[in-house]
Specification:
alpha+beta; two-stranded parallel sheet; 279 residues
Length: 279
Amino acid sequence: PDSFLRLLRKRVKKERPDAYILGEIWEEPTAKISYGRHRDFLLGNTHDAAMGYVFRGHVLAFLKEEIDGEQLALAFGKTLSITPKEALYAQMNLLGSHDTSRIITELAGPPLPVSREEQAVLKLTGEERKKGERLLLLASLFQVAFPGVMAVYYGDELGMEGYEDPFNRRTFPREGSKRLPAGKLREQIIALMRLRSGTPVLKTGFFEIVYASQGAILFRRYKEGQLDAFGKPAAGPEQAWIAINRRDQPATFPGQSGVGPLEPKSGAVYLDDDKVFSF
């Protein structure tokens, strides 16, 4: 109940003012209604932020071609408009968790089998895995672009597969596993994590959706007068561009961005005028 959560917050913040109180909330946290009342999860009375399951749902819907780029921009716009900035920038932007199918399986695998026996043994084919790795990298670019905290569920950086519990909770593979080599996917995910954590404008810069089409979208993170979205000085690049193309054809972006064309199912990150990541 809210009364308990308010008391919990007071006690936690008294003990440690910078403690992070995260809520496992699957719906839009500011629009959540339960037990017959509206819950004030992100109004400064209970939580600091929520798990980004809504963010995850939008990303999956786009990459699985259930919605187009314009619809995705509208969905993100809604989240931006109803989420307090302090909570938005602290949101746990996840792609997978112990309560979801593995992200690579969800992006490229067959629909969830009814039989648990089938779920236990079904693996991606070589072609499905190749497609899944590219889509997983595109999903990770959304984590780089969107305000919040980039969160990686253990093993997703290796492309671990699996449907729902317990198959999404398998043990971490031993080094040298033939099925899950520590190869290029892992290196690329780590590179994106380092880029995100080491670039102030990607953490606290302003956020803008510059362009959205049927299958491509372009984001911009930027500072204003050397200040971030919280009015604080921020070092490093003035702006970042994150371009994503889920289509099977090349994509182009507005000329003023300086972002070059993208090959099918590929993405790129630019810091100021320099391309610092692409695949």
